[in-house]
Protein backbone atom coordinates (compact mmCIF):
# COMPACT_ATOMS: atom_id res chain seq x y z
CA UNK A 1 0.00 0.00 0.00
CA UNK A 2 1.35 3.42 -0.93
CA UNK A 3 2.34 5.61 2.00
CA UNK A 4 2.29 8.83 0.00
CA UNK A 5 5.83 9.65 1.15
CA UNK A 6 8.35 11.21 -1.18
CA UNK A 7 11.84 9.80 -1.57
CA UNK A 8 13.28 12.49 0.70
CA UNK A 9 10.69 11.68 3.36
CA UNK A 10 11.56 7.98 3.13
CA UNK A 11 15.28 8.69 3.48
CA UNK A 12 14.70 10.91 6.50
CA UNK A 13 12.54 8.22 8.11
CA UNK A 14 15.09 5.48 7.46
CA UNK A 15 17.89 7.57 8.99
CA UNK A 16 15.94 7.85 12.26
CA UNK A 17 14.26 4.46 12.48
CA UNK A 18 17.10 2.22 13.76
CA UNK A 19 18.80 2.99 17.10
CA UNK A 20 22.34 2.92 15.62
CA UNK A 21 23.68 3.93 12.20
CA UNK A 22 25.84 0.81 11.72
CA UNK A 23 24.69 -2.57 13.03
CA UNK A 24 26.87 -5.33 11.60
CA UNK A 25 25.35 -8.75 10.90
CA UNK A 26 23.05 -10.46 8.43
CA UNK A 27 20.37 -11.99 10.67
CA UNK A 28 17.88 -9.13 10.57
CA UNK A 29 18.31 -8.28 6.91
CA UNK A 30 18.02 -11.95 5.91
CA UNK A 31 14.60 -12.18 7.57
CA UNK A 32 13.30 -9.27 5.50
CA UNK A 33 15.05 -10.49 2.34
CA UNK A 34 13.26 -13.84 2.66
CA UNK A 35 9.91 -12.09 2.94
CA UNK A 36 10.73 -10.02 -0.16
CA UNK A 37 11.57 -13.12 -2.17
CA UNK A 38 15.18 -12.06 -2.66
CA UNK A 39 16.46 -15.48 -1.68
CA UNK A 40 14.10 -17.35 -4.00
CA UNK A 41 16.09 -16.71 -7.17
CA UNK A 42 19.30 -14.92 -8.25
CA UNK A 43 19.16 -11.16 -8.67
CA UNK A 44 21.08 -11.40 -11.97
CA UNK A 45 22.59 -13.98 -14.30
CA UNK A 46 26.00 -13.17 -12.81
CA UNK A 47 26.97 -11.23 -9.68
CA UNK A 48 30.36 -9.62 -9.05
CA UNK A 49 30.87 -8.35 -5.49
CA UNK A 50 33.70 -5.92 -4.73
CA UNK A 51 35.19 -5.40 -1.26
CA UNK A 52 38.27 -3.49 -0.14
CA UNK A 53 39.48 -0.47 1.77
CA UNK A 54 40.28 1.64 -1.30
CA UNK A 55 39.63 1.16 -4.99
CA UNK A 56 36.14 -0.31 -4.74
CA UNK A 57 34.40 2.58 -6.45
CA UNK A 58 36.80 2.79 -9.38
CA UNK A 59 36.76 -0.99 -9.85
CA UNK A 60 32.95 -1.01 -9.86
CA UNK A 61 32.82 1.89 -12.31
CA UNK A 62 35.18 0.14 -14.71
CA UNK A 63 33.33 -3.16 -14.39
CA UNK A 64 30.11 -1.35 -15.30
CA UNK A 65 31.70 0.41 -18.27
CA UNK A 66 33.36 -2.78 -19.51
CA UNK A 67 30.21 -4.88 -19.18
CA UNK A 68 28.06 -2.27 -20.90
CA UNK A 69 30.47 -1.86 -23.81
CA UNK A 70 30.44 -5.64 -24.26
CA UNK A 71 26.68 -5.43 -24.84
CA UNK A 72 25.61 -6.68 -21.41
CA UNK A 73 22.70 -5.29 -19.43
CA UNK A 74 24.46 -4.25 -16.23
CA UNK A 75 23.08 -3.10 -12.87
CA UNK A 76 25.22 -1.53 -10.14
CA UNK A 77 24.90 -0.88 -6.43
CA UNK A 78 27.45 1.39 -4.79
CA UNK A 79 27.74 3.71 -1.80
CA UNK A 80 27.85 6.35 -0.54
CA UNK A 81 26.48 8.97 -2.90
CA UNK A 82 27.76 12.49 -3.46
CA UNK A 83 24.74 14.67 -4.32
CA UNK A 84 21.71 12.45 -4.90
CA UNK A 85 20.75 9.12 -3.34
CA UNK A 86 19.84 7.80 -6.79
CA UNK A 87 23.58 7.68 -7.60
CA UNK A 88 23.77 4.49 -5.52
CA UNK A 89 21.69 2.35 -7.89
CA UNK A 90 22.12 2.05 -11.63
CA UNK A 91 19.76 -0.31 -13.43
CA UNK A 92 20.25 -1.48 -16.98
CA UNK A 93 18.44 1.58 -18.35
CA UNK A 94 20.22 4.17 -16.18
CA UNK A 95 20.12 5.66 -12.70
CA UNK A 96 17.19 4.56 -10.59
CA UNK A 97 14.25 6.96 -10.53
CA UNK A 98 12.63 8.43 -7.41
CA UNK A 99 9.38 6.54 -8.00
CA UNK A 100 11.23 3.20 -8.23
CA UNK A 101 13.02 3.84 -4.95
CA UNK A 102 9.78 4.85 -3.24
CA UNK A 103 8.14 1.65 -4.47
CA UNK A 104 11.07 -0.39 -3.14
CA UNK A 105 11.03 1.27 0.28
CA UNK A 106 7.29 0.70 0.56
CA UNK A 107 7.76 -3.01 -0.23
CA UNK A 108 10.54 -3.26 2.36
CA UNK A 109 8.43 -1.46 4.95
CA UNK A 110 5.60 -3.94 4.41
CA UNK A 111 8.04 -6.86 4.74
CA UNK A 112 9.82 -5.63 7.87
CA UNK A 113 7.12 -6.31 10.43
CA UNK A 114 8.84 -5.98 13.81
CA UNK A 115 12.33 -6.17 12.28
CA UNK A 116 14.30 -2.94 12.41
CA UNK A 117 16.82 -2.09 9.69
CA UNK A 118 19.54 0.53 9.41
CA UNK A 119 19.52 3.15 6.68
CA UNK A 120 22.21 1.21 4.79
CA UNK A 121 20.43 -2.13 5.19
CA UNK A 122 17.16 -0.73 3.88
CA UNK A 123 18.98 0.89 0.98
CA UNK A 124 20.79 -2.35 0.17
CA UNK A 125 17.54 -4.32 0.16
CA UNK A 126 15.99 -1.68 -2.09
CA UNK A 127 18.87 -2.02 -4.52
CA UNK A 128 18.76 -5.82 -4.54
CA UNK A 129 14.96 -5.85 -4.96
CA UNK A 130 15.09 -3.42 -7.88
CA UNK A 131 18.00 -5.24 -9.51
CA UNK A 132 16.19 -8.57 -9.22
CA UNK A 133 13.17 -7.06 -10.97
CA UNK A 134 15.43 -5.56 -13.64
CA UNK A 135 16.91 -9.05 -14.26
CA UNK A 136 20.21 -7.81 -15.76
CA UNK A 137 22.88 -9.95 -17.38
CA UNK A 138 25.31 -8.93 -14.66
CA UNK A 139 25.07 -7.11 -11.32
CA UNK A 140 28.06 -5.38 -9.73
CA UNK A 141 27.76 -4.84 -5.98
CA UNK A 142 30.06 -2.70 -3.83
CA UNK A 143 30.47 -3.71 -0.18
CA UNK A 144 29.82 -0.88 2.24
CA UNK A 145 31.93 -1.84 5.26
CA UNK A 146 34.10 -4.90 5.77
CA UNK A 147 32.63 -7.82 3.87
CA UNK A 148 31.58 -10.86 5.85
CA UNK A 149 28.92 -9.06 7.89
CA UNK A 150 28.04 -6.34 5.39
CA UNK A 151 24.47 -6.29 4.08
CA UNK A 152 25.69 -6.76 0.50
CA UNK A 153 27.07 -10.18 1.49
CA UNK A 154 23.50 -11.39 1.67
CA UNK A 155 23.96 -12.22 -2.02
CA UNK A 156 26.27 -15.05 -3.12
CA UNK A 157 28.90 -13.63 -5.43
CA UNK A 158 29.71 -15.50 -8.64
CA UNK A 159 33.01 -13.60 -8.65
CA UNK A 160 34.43 -12.03 -5.47
CA UNK A 161 36.92 -9.16 -5.72
CA UNK A 162 39.11 -7.76 -2.95
CA UNK A 163 40.88 -4.58 -4.05
CA UNK A 164 43.04 -3.41 -1.14
CA UNK A 165 43.26 -3.84 2.61
CA UNK A 166 44.33 -0.96 4.84
CA UNK A 167 43.33 0.52 8.19
CA UNK A 168 40.00 2.33 8.13
CA UNK A 169 36.75 2.13 10.15
CA UNK A 170 38.80 0.94 13.14
CA UNK A 171 35.77 1.16 15.46
CA UNK A 172 34.15 -1.68 13.52
CA UNK A 173 37.02 -3.57 11.88
CA UNK A 174 39.86 -3.01 14.35
CA UNK A 175 43.47 -2.22 13.47
CA UNK A 176 44.82 -5.69 12.72
CA UNK A 177 45.31 -5.99 8.96
CA UNK A 178 45.10 -9.79 9.04
CA UNK A 179 41.70 -9.62 10.71
CA UNK A 180 40.54 -6.85 8.36
CA UNK A 181 41.62 -8.93 5.38
CA UNK A 182 39.77 -11.96 6.69
CA UNK A 183 36.60 -9.89 7.08
CA UNK A 184 36.82 -8.57 3.52
CA UNK A 185 37.52 -12.05 2.16
CA UNK A 186 34.21 -13.12 3.70
CA UNK A 187 32.47 -12.24 0.42
CA UNK A 188 34.11 -15.27 -1.25
CA UNK A 189 32.19 -18.47 -1.89
CA UNK A 190 33.31 -22.08 -2.15
CA UNK A 191 33.84 -23.29 -5.70
CA UNK A 192 33.57 -19.78 -7.16
CA UNK A 193 36.32 -17.46 -8.45
CA UNK A 194 38.06 -14.78 -6.42
CA UNK A 195 40.23 -11.94 -7.70
CA UNK A 196 42.84 -10.38 -5.40
CA UNK A 197 43.48 -6.91 -6.78
CA UNK A 198 46.57 -5.83 -4.86
CA UNK A 199 50.10 -7.16 -4.59
CA UNK A 200 50.15 -6.14 -0.93
CA UNK A 201 47.17 -7.89 0.62
CA UNK A 202 47.59 -9.50 4.05
CA UNK A 203 48.11 -13.26 3.84
CA UNK A 204 44.75 -13.86 5.53
CA UNK A 205 42.90 -13.02 2.29
CA UNK A 206 44.49 -15.79 0.22
CA UNK A 207 44.41 -18.12 3.24
CA UNK A 208 40.65 -17.66 3.60
CA UNK A 209 40.15 -18.29 -0.11
CA UNK A 210 42.06 -21.56 0.20
CA UNK A 211 40.28 -22.52 3.41
CA UNK A 212 36.78 -22.24 1.93
CA UNK A 213 37.75 -23.63 -1.48
CA UNK A 214 37.28 -20.58 -3.71
CA UNK A 215 38.32 -21.63 -7.24
CA UNK A 216 40.13 -20.24 -9.11
CA UNK A 217 41.91 -17.53 -7.11
CA UNK A 218 43.83 -15.09 -9.31
CA UNK A 219 46.25 -12.60 -7.74
CA UNK A 220 47.54 -9.35 -9.18
CA UNK A 221 51.23 -9.61 -9.99
CA UNK A 222 51.09 -13.42 -10.14
CA UNK A 223 48.17 -14.65 -12.22
CA UNK A 224 47.33 -11.36 -13.90
CA UNK A 225 49.31 -8.17 -14.28
CA UNK A 226 49.48 -4.81 -15.98
CA UNK A 227 52.42 -2.85 -17.30
CA UNK A 228 53.35 0.68 -16.35
CA UNK A 229 52.04 3.15 -18.96
CA UNK A 230 54.25 3.33 -22.05
CA UNK A 231 53.47 6.81 -23.28
CA UNK A 232 49.69 6.88 -23.56
CA UNK A 233 49.11 3.14 -23.36
CA UNK A 234 49.45 0.14 -21.05
CA UNK A 235 49.11 -3.62 -21.44
CA UNK A 236 47.24 -6.33 -19.52
CA UNK A 237 47.84 -10.03 -19.13
CA UNK A 238 45.38 -12.32 -17.40
CA UNK A 239 43.87 -15.79 -17.35
CA UNK A 240 40.58 -17.19 -18.50
CA UNK A 241 38.40 -19.58 -16.49
CA UNK A 242 40.56 -22.52 -17.65
CA UNK A 243 43.76 -20.84 -16.53
CA UNK A 244 44.93 -20.10 -20.06
CA UNK A 245 46.91 -16.91 -20.67
CA UNK A 246 45.14 -14.02 -22.38
CA UNK A 247 46.23 -10.46 -23.03
CA UNK A 248 45.29 -7.03 -24.31
CA UNK A 249 47.72 -4.42 -25.62
CA UNK A 250 47.73 -0.65 -26.18
CA UNK A 251 44.95 0.11 -23.72
CA UNK A 252 44.09 3.77 -23.00
CA UNK A 253 44.56 5.21 -19.51
CA UNK A 254 41.10 5.27 -17.88
CA UNK A 255 42.17 8.04 -15.51
CA UNK A 256 41.64 5.65 -12.58
CA UNK A 257 44.12 3.31 -10.84
CA UNK A 258 45.51 0.79 -13.32
CA UNK A 259 45.63 -1.93 -10.66
CA UNK A 260 41.87 -1.59 -10.43
CA UNK A 261 41.51 -1.54 -14.21
CA UNK A 262 43.50 -4.79 -14.43
CA UNK A 263 41.39 -6.26 -11.65
CA UNK A 264 38.14 -5.32 -13.39
CA UNK A 265 39.31 -7.00 -16.60
CA UNK A 266 40.23 -10.18 -14.74
CA UNK A 267 36.96 -10.25 -12.80
CA UNK A 268 34.88 -9.75 -15.93
CA UNK A 269 36.71 -12.58 -17.69
CA UNK A 270 35.94 -14.88 -14.75
CA UNK A 271 32.30 -13.82 -15.08
CA UNK A 272 32.35 -15.57 -18.49
CA UNK A 273 32.67 -12.42 -20.58
CA UNK A 274 34.81 -12.75 -23.72
CA UNK A 275 36.80 -9.54 -23.79
CA UNK A 276 37.28 -7.72 -27.08
CA UNK A 277 39.95 -5.08 -27.62
CA UNK A 278 37.57 -2.54 -29.16
CA UNK A 279 35.01 -2.77 -26.34
CA UNK A 280 37.71 -2.50 -23.66
CA UNK A 281 39.24 0.50 -25.40
CA UNK A 282 35.92 2.33 -25.59
CA UNK A 283 35.06 1.50 -21.98
CA UNK A 284 38.33 2.91 -20.65
CA UNK A 285 38.03 6.02 -22.81
CA UNK A 286 34.55 6.82 -21.53
CA UNK A 287 34.51 5.64 -17.90
CA UNK A 288 33.81 8.37 -15.36
CA UNK A 289 33.66 8.37 -11.58
CA UNK A 290 32.75 11.61 -9.80
CA UNK A 291 34.91 12.37 -6.81
CA UNK A 292 37.85 10.16 -7.82
CA UNK A 293 40.62 12.16 -9.50
CA UNK A 294 37.80 14.25 -10.97
CA UNK A 295 39.16 17.30 -12.77
CA UNK A 296 37.06 20.44 -13.29
CA UNK A 297 37.98 23.86 -14.66
CA UNK A 298 36.64 26.76 -12.64
CA UNK A 299 37.68 30.43 -12.34
CA UNK A 300 40.81 29.86 -14.42
CA UNK A 301 42.05 27.04 -12.20
CA UNK A 302 42.17 23.26 -12.50
CA UNK A 303 40.37 21.61 -9.59
CA UNK A 304 40.92 17.99 -8.56
CA UNK A 305 38.20 16.43 -6.40
CA UNK A 306 38.97 13.17 -4.65
CA UNK A 307 37.26 11.47 -1.71
CA UNK A 308 40.60 10.13 -0.34
CA UNK A 309 40.15 9.87 3.43
CA UNK A 310 42.89 7.48 4.59
CA UNK A 311 46.68 7.42 4.13
CA UNK A 312 46.63 4.69 1.47
CA UNK A 313 44.23 6.63 -0.77
CA UNK A 314 46.02 9.92 -0.09
CA UNK A 315 49.32 8.31 -1.06
CA UNK A 316 47.95 7.26 -4.44
CA UNK A 317 46.49 10.73 -4.95
CA UNK A 318 49.87 12.34 -4.18
CA UNK A 319 51.58 9.98 -6.59
CA UNK A 320 49.24 11.01 -9.40
CA UNK A 321 49.60 14.71 -8.59
CA UNK A 322 53.39 14.41 -8.75
CA UNK A 323 52.96 13.67 -12.44
CA UNK A 324 51.38 17.08 -13.01
CA UNK A 325 53.41 20.08 -14.23
CA UNK A 326 55.04 21.99 -11.35
CA UNK A 327 53.18 24.94 -9.90
CA UNK A 328 51.41 26.27 -6.83
CA UNK A 329 48.83 23.88 -5.37
CA UNK A 330 46.12 24.70 -2.84
CA UNK A 331 44.49 21.94 -0.80
CA UNK A 332 41.01 22.31 0.68
CA UNK A 333 40.92 19.60 3.34
CA UNK A 334 38.04 18.53 5.59
CA UNK A 335 37.92 15.21 7.43
CA UNK A 336 35.81 13.29 9.89
CA UNK A 337 37.07 12.98 13.44
CA UNK A 338 37.53 9.20 13.32
CA UNK A 339 39.89 9.29 10.31
CA UNK A 340 43.70 9.31 10.35
CA UNK A 341 44.25 12.99 9.62
CA UNK A 342 47.96 12.83 10.39
CA UNK A 343 48.51 10.01 7.90
CA UNK A 344 46.54 11.80 5.16
CA UNK A 345 48.33 15.10 5.71
CA UNK A 346 51.77 13.44 5.70
CA UNK A 347 50.94 11.71 2.41
CA UNK A 348 49.81 14.95 0.76
CA UNK A 349 52.45 17.27 2.22
CA UNK A 350 54.94 16.87 -0.68
CA UNK A 351 52.36 17.99 -3.27
CA UNK A 352 50.62 20.83 -1.37
CA UNK A 353 51.91 24.40 -1.02
CA UNK A 354 48.95 26.00 0.75
CA UNK A 355 46.31 24.47 3.01
CA UNK A 356 42.78 25.73 3.52
CA UNK A 357 41.00 23.60 6.09
CA UNK A 358 37.30 23.29 6.77
CA UNK A 359 34.98 21.66 9.26
CA UNK A 360 32.33 19.01 8.69
CA UNK A 361 28.93 18.68 10.41
CA UNK A 362 27.56 15.84 12.49
CA UNK A 363 28.56 13.68 15.46
CA UNK A 364 31.73 12.46 13.74
CA UNK A 365 32.78 15.99 12.83
CA UNK A 366 36.30 17.40 13.06
CA UNK A 367 36.35 21.19 13.34
CA UNK A 368 38.58 23.35 11.16
CA UNK A 369 40.65 24.70 14.06
CA UNK A 370 41.83 21.28 15.25
CA UNK A 371 42.58 20.20 11.68
CA UNK A 372 44.58 23.38 11.11
CA UNK A 373 46.66 22.67 14.21
CA UNK A 374 47.43 19.18 12.88
CA UNK A 375 48.54 20.56 9.50
CA UNK A 376 50.72 23.18 11.19
CA UNK A 377 52.24 20.61 13.55
CA UNK A 378 53.34 18.62 10.52
CA UNK A 379 54.88 21.67 8.85
CA UNK A 380 52.08 22.73 6.52
CA UNK A 381 51.22 26.34 5.68
CA UNK A 382 47.57 27.04 6.61
CA UNK A 383 46.20 30.21 5.01
CA UNK A 384 42.56 29.97 6.08
CA UNK A 385 40.02 28.07 8.17
CA UNK A 386 36.46 27.75 6.92
CA UNK A 387 33.24 26.56 8.50
CA UNK A 388 32.45 24.20 5.63
CA UNK A 389 34.17 22.90 2.48
CA UNK A 390 31.60 24.76 0.39
CA UNK A 391 32.60 28.06 1.96
CA UNK A 392 36.25 27.26 1.35
CA UNK A 393 35.50 26.55 -2.31
CA UNK A 394 33.52 29.79 -2.66
CA UNK A 395 36.39 31.71 -1.11
CA UNK A 396 38.97 30.27 -3.50
CA UNK A 397 36.67 30.78 -6.50
CA UNK A 398 36.45 34.48 -5.62
CA UNK A 399 40.16 34.89 -4.81
CA UNK A 400 42.68 36.37 -7.23
CA UNK A 401 45.69 34.94 -5.34
CA UNK A 402 47.68 32.40 -7.36
CA UNK A 403 45.19 32.56 -10.25
CA UNK A 404 46.73 29.60 -12.10
CA UNK A 405 47.13 27.33 -9.07
CA UNK A 406 45.74 23.81 -9.05
CA UNK A 407 43.20 23.24 -6.28
CA UNK A 408 42.84 19.87 -4.57
CA UNK A 409 39.64 19.14 -2.62
CA UNK A 410 39.76 15.96 -0.52
CA UNK A 411 39.37 14.24 2.85
CA UNK A 412 35.86 12.79 2.76
CA UNK A 413 32.83 12.06 0.62
CA UNK A 414 31.16 14.90 2.55
CA UNK A 415 33.98 17.26 1.55
CA UNK A 416 33.68 16.50 -2.14
CA UNK A 417 29.88 16.53 -2.06
CA UNK A 418 29.80 20.01 -0.49
CA UNK A 419 32.37 21.25 -3.00
CA UNK A 420 30.46 19.83 -5.97
CA UNK A 421 27.24 21.43 -4.76
CA UNK A 422 28.93 24.84 -4.84
CA UNK A 423 30.85 24.26 -8.05
CA UNK A 424 27.75 23.06 -9.91
CA UNK A 425 26.51 26.64 -9.83
CA UNK A 426 29.83 28.07 -11.01
CA UNK A 427 31.07 27.91 -14.58
UniProtKB/TrEMBL annotation:
The lineage of its organism: Bacteria, Pseudomonadati, Pseudomonadota, Gammaproteobacteria, Oceanospirillales. Functions in two distinct reactions of the de novo folate biosynthetic pathway. Catalyzes the addition of a glutamate residue to dihydropteroate (7,8-dihydropteroate or H2Pte) to form dihydrofolate (7,8-dihydrofolate monoglutamate or H2Pte-Glu). Also catalyzes successive additions of L-glutamate to tetrahydrofolate or 10-formyltetrahydrofolate or 5,10-methylenetetrahydrofolate, leading to folylpolyglutamate derivatives. Keywords: ATP-binding, Folate biosynthesis, Ligase, Magnesium, Metal-binding, Nucleotide-binding. Its EC number is 6.3.2.12, 6.3.2.17. Belongs to the folylpolyglutamate synthase family. SUPFAM superfamilies: MurD-like peptide ligases, catalytic domain, MurD-like peptide ligases, peptide-binding domain. One of its GO terms (molecular function) is tetrahydrofolylpolyglutamate synthase activity. It catalyses: (6S)-5,6,7,8-tetrahydrofolyl-(gamma-L-Glu)(n) + L-glutamate + ATP = (6S)-5,6,7,8-tetrahydrofolyl-(gamma-L-Glu)(n+1) + ADP + phosphate + H(+); 10-formyltetrahydrofolyl-(gamma-L-Glu)(n) + L-glutamate + ATP = 10-formyltetrahydrofolyl-(gamma-L-Glu)(n+1) + ADP + phosphate + H(+); (6R)-5,10-methylenetetrahydrofolyl-(gamma-L-Glu)(n) + L-glutamate + ATP = (6R)-5,10-methylenetetrahydrofolyl-(gamma-L-Glu)(n+1) + ADP + phosphate + H(+); 7,8-dihydropteroate + L-glutamate + ATP = 7,8-dihydrofolate + ADP + phosphate + H(+). Pathway: Cofactor biosynthesis; tetrahydrofolate biosynthesis; 7,8-dihydrofolate from 2-amino-4-hydroxy-6-hydroxymethyl-7,8-dihydropteridine diphosphate and 4-aminobenzoate: step 2/2; Cofactor biosynthesis; tetrahydrofolylpolyglutamate biosynthesis. This is Dihydrofolate synthase/folylpolyglutamate synthase. Pfam families: Mur_ligase_C, Mur_ligase_M. One of its GO terms (biological process) is folic acid biosynthetic process. It comes from the Bacteria. Residues 50-189 form the Mur ligase central domain. Residues 291-413 form the Mur ligase C-terminal domain. It is an enzyme of class 6 (ligase). One of its GO terms (cellular component) is cytoplasm.
Amino acid sequence: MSSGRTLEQWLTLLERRHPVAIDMGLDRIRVVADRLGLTDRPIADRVVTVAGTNGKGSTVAMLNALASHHGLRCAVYTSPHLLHYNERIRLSDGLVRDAELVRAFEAIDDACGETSLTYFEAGTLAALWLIQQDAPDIAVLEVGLGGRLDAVNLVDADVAVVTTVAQDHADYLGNDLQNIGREKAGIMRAGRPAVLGSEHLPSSVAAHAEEIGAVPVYCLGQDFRRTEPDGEFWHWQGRDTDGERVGLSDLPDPGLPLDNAATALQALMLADVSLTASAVEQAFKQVELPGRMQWLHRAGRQWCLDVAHNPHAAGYLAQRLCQRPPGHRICILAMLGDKDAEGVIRALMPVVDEWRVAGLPGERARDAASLALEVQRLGGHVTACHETPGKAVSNVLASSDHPSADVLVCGSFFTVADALAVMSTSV
